[in-house]
Amino acid sequence: MKRCLFFILLFIFGFTVIIYGQEAQLTVDQCVEIALEQNPDIIRGEFTVKIAGKDVTVAMSNFLPYISTSMQYNHSVVGPSSALRIDPQTGILVPIQPSEIASWSSSIGISVNQTIFNGGYDIFNFNRSRAMKSSAEYTFENTKQTVIYVVKERYYNLLAAEKLLGVAEETILSSEESYKRAQVLFEVGKASKSDVLKAEVQLGTGQLNLIQSQNSLSIARASLNHILGLDVDYQIQVVDDLDIPEMEVSYEDAAANTFMYHPSLIGREYDVKASKAGVSMSISQYLPSISAFYGYNWRQKDFSMVKNMLDSDYSWYVGVSLSLPIFQGFSRVANLSRARFNYQSSLEALEQTKRDLALEVKQAYFDVQQAKKSIEVTRNQVASAEEDLRLNSEKYTLGSGTMLELIDAQVSYATAKSDHIQSLYAYKKAIARLQQTMGKLEK
Q1: How is 48-62 classified by DSSP, letter by letter?
Q2: Diameter of the chain by CA atoms?
Q3: Coil vs helix vs strand at 439
Q4: Mean pLDDT score of the chain, rounded to an integer?
Q5: In 20-120, which residue ranges form alpha helices assigned H by DSSP?
Q6: pLDDT digits (tens, 9 = 90+) for 252-269
Q7: Bridge-based pairing state of the strands 23-26 and 235-238
Q8: What are the sequence ranges of the domains in the chain?
């Protein structure tokens, strides 16, 4: 059902691209859906999980008996012999075998071999493969969480780039208006040539900022297309959600969720289990192995007699074997040492992951708090800068203000608006980051 919905979404997306000249309007959730189906890291992760599942099947097959059967039909010819012997009746040398001899042989056989005990190797190997499969599943889940976060981050970066481009365009209009006003006032003798030049420089600076904003927008759009697995030149139209989400969670709860649900941490715990089973596998190589075997064979010159294979010309055997390895070079010692080193390494990797997540959740939590406070501060800055720009614009028109004051007010207003836009999307990205750190980032 999930894959069917994806293809429906992809069809709608493709149809929109055709109709509107490679432009499609997508929400952040739709972008996440596309990335979860098309992103190369996701696809590789799915294959890794499937391979790990097959390894479990292989390990489980070691508990089952090995059964093999064979059927042969042979025709052989032995040619005349060049060796001679003395005929006891005539005393003449004659060939030992004067003519060729042909023979026919048919056989059917079946053999069964069942391992009864091999030091627990098969059990430990099965446990190890299951732990590795679980580790692969949680690693894949961590990959999905990362992809979802990157999609949201680039989606919000694209929205911010669009808004910042609007600020740059608005600044150009304001600078053009100031430049024209300075020229008019200069012509009537109410402004100096310096004011005109300053306004012209400010206009040029605004035009340069506009180009930079346009480039940033193109890069942000290409980055989103890239994570979605789409052509970087697709002109995706993103849908802006102006709501400011609330993240009501304490630091203690966030940290607890991280250590309980984060997939990378759970995956590391399964890595420890797998490496511990590897140590037990290496120890089992020092123990004896016991196996039972059975075989049944039928052999006859005439294959048509196979119908009587259970009545005549048969042989069968059954038995139990015990083997105890005494010396195999130093391979067992090396394997055991390597397994123990791998176990210690996995323990250290687990502890390092815990330390990394402890730092990550602390940073993510306080980034959310800072970004939330930044929204309120920058909103007030915009209101103040807007009022300051209005007053300086009126003062300059009336001749009581300077061009430098007006330019400073324009720069402050543009900076305040840019900071407010960035704080809005920084807050959304910070929430997504905290949710990812908690292992609860949703589509």
Answers
A1: HHHHHHHHHHHHHHT
A2: 153
A3: coil
A4: 88
A5: 28-38, 40-61
A6: 999 999 999 999 999 999
A7: parallel
A8: 17-64+118-288+329-437
With beta carbons less than 8 A apart as the criterion, state whether 99 and 265 touch: no
Give me the phi and psi of 221, to 5 degrees please: -70, -40
Q: What is the predicted pLDDT for the residue at 101?
A: 83
The domain over range 17-64+118-288+329-437 is classified in CATH as 1.20.1600.10: yes
Q: Is the pLDDT of residue 243 over 80?
A: no
Rounded to the nearest angstrom, the gap between the alpha carbon of residue 246 and the centroid of all alpha carbons in its chain is: 29
Residue 24's pLDDT band, with cuts at 50, 70 and 90, is low
Q: What is the DSSP secondary structure assignment for residue 317, as one 8-state letter?
A: E
Q: Which residues contact 358 (CB under 8 A, 6 or more apart)?
A: 255, 258
Say whether pLDDT at 246 is over 70: yes
What are the C-alpha distances in Å from 371 to residues 136, 148, 167, 386? 35, 20, 21, 22
Using one digit for the tens of pLDDT, what is the confidence trace for 374-416?
999 999 999 999 999 899 888 888 877 888 888 888 899 999 9
Q: Please, are residues 430 and 254 in contact by the beta-carbon 8 Å criterion?
A: no
As to burial, measured by CB atoms within 10 angstroms (0-12 exposed, 13-18 middle, 19+ buried), residue 192 is middle
Tokens of 214: 């346009």
Give the CA distances from residue 180 to residues 144, 387, 405, in Å, rounded to whole numbers and listed in that order: 54, 21, 17
Question: Distance between CA 22 and CA 233 in Å, rounded?
Answer: 8
pTM of the model: 0.81
Place of tokens 């740059």: 168
What does the DSSP 8-state code read for residue 328? B
Tokens at 317, concatenated: 């055997």
- CA-nearest of 143, 152, 161, 150 to 30 is 152
For the chain, the residue count is 443
| Residue 220 amino acid letter | A
Q: Which amino acid is at 285?
A: Q
The per-residue b/e assignment along 212-235, b for 16 or more CB within 10 angstroms, e otherwise, is: ebeebbeebbbbbbebbebeeebe
